């Protein structure tokens, strides 16, 4: 038996960072995001027991094998693959081992700011859901993916990525204490999406980074009352409301202006969010005619989103091509995680 799954990566348009505990537990968080046509992919083959368990991450050239077992130690490489297997066996297969060969690959590298790690967890979970015909809702899948990453693997991070890729499309998300999440799907007219795509450029800086340090700095700032970092978090959340309103009203120029404010506020959350090379990139693209830019994700590298008047697009792209990264073509997508049997 063979099953496959794929899940879309996401752009964090506004509010990123307010979905991280303890900020969202204390103040409530809100995030505006949208999925794009870049994916994390998974294939699971059900094999004979004597073939054991094999995980193959094709994009990062890592592989793991073990004879058939109920629990795999969370150490070494491919921790997420191991943790998903452990949870599925424990919670959904009566502690009976599953002989599988799991292949994965992502359209974006780890640490790129598009939620690739969380998206991969959701994709693997969706494939197991298809394999075992599990009655899991979208909320169930997203919450389980969050628990696997943040609790089982102890990786720092927020909650938006798991929900964004599971639900798909444009979503305004609210985060509260006790891991309560409300996903509000937004109905965006095609004309608005077309205009948004015409004015946006997605650019990979060429630098992948670990978000853990940046997130840990944000958490430290949240725990310090009346700190500049906490004030910046409040501003980031406020701007997510305003960005949602601009999007729904097709005010793309307003979104571009809010990007400037959101980027300034985001940089105030941690000193590691921007770097000298990112600052130079910003100077170059604004001089070339871009209206605004902002990192998508925790910061420090990864992908950058730019707003640009379409008549200046070629000039901005020409400037970007002089730098060390690459322009990433994309379209917004309305579908979340999908799985099917071959």
From TrEMBL:
Keyword annotations for this protein? ATP-binding, Kinase, Nucleotide-binding, Transferase
For this protein, the record's Pfam families field holds:
GHMP_kinases_C, GHMP_kinases_N
Q: Which domain of life is it from?
A: Bacteria
Where, if anywhere, are coiled coils annotated? none
Q: From the UniProt record, give one GO term of the biological process aspect.
A: GDP-L-fucose salvage
SUPFAM superfamilies the record matches: GHMP Kinase, C-terminal domain, Ribosomal protein S5 domain 2-like
**GO MF terms, alphabetically ordered:** ATP binding; fucokinase activity
Residue span(s) of domain GHMP kinase N-terminal: 82-169
Q: Which residues form the GHMP kinase C-terminal domain?
A: 243-313
Q: Which InterPro entries match?
A: GHMP_Kinase-Related (IPR052203), GHMP_kinase_C_dom (IPR013750), GHMP_kinase_C_sf (IPR036554), GHMP_kinase_N_dom (IPR006204), HddA/FKP (IPR001174), Heptose_7-P_kinase (IPR014606), Ribosomal_Su5_D2-typ_SF (IPR020568)
User: Mind telling me which PANTHER family this protein's record contains?
Assistant: L-FUCOSE KINASE (PTHR32463)
* Family assignment from sequence similarity: Belongs to the GHMP kinase family.
List the protein's name: Dehydrogenase
């Amino acid at each position: 038996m063979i099953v496959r799954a794929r899940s879309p990566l996401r752009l964090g348009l506004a509010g990123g960072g307010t979905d991280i505990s303890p900020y969202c537990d204390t103040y409530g968080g809100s995030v505006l995001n949208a999925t794009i046509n870049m994916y994390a992919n998974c294939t699971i083959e059900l094999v004979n027991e004597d073939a054991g368990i094999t995980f193959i991450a094709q994009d990062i050239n890592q592989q793991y094998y073990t004879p058939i077992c109920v629990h795999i130690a969370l150490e070494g490489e491919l921790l997420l693959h191991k943790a998903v297997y452990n949870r599925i066996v424990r919670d959904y297969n009566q502690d009976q081992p599953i002989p599988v060969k799991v292949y994965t690959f992502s359209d974006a590298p780890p640490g790129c700011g598009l939620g690739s790690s969380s998206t991969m967890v959701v994709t693997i979970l969706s494939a197991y859901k298809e394999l075992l015909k599990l009655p899991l809702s979208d909320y169930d899948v997203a919450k389980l993916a969050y628990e696997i990453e943040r609790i089982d693997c102890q990786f720092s991070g927020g909650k938006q990525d798991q929900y964004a890729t599971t639900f798909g499309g444009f979503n305004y998300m609210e985060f509260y204490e006790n891991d309560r999440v409300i996903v509000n799907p937004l109905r965006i007219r095609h004309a608005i999406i077309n205009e948004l795509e015409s004015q946006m450029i997605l650019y990979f800086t060429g630098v992948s980074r670990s978000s853990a340090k940046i997130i840990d700095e944000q958490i430290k700032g949240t725990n310090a009352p009346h700190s500049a970092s906490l004030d910046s978090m409040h501003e980031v959340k406020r701007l997510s409301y305003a960005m949602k309103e601009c999007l729904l009203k097709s005010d793309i120029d307003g979104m571009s202006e809010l990007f400037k404010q959101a980027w300034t506020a985001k940089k105030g959350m941690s000193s590691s969010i921007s770097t000298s090379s990112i600052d130079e990139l910003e100077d170059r693209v604004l001089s070339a005619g871009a209206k605004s830019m902002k990192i998508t994700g925790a910061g420090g590298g990864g992908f950058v989103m730019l707003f640009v008047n379409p008549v200046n697009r070629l000039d901005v792209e020409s400037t970007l091509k002089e730098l060390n990264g690459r322009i990433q073509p994309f379209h917004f997508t309305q579908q979340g995680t999908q799985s099917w049997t071959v």
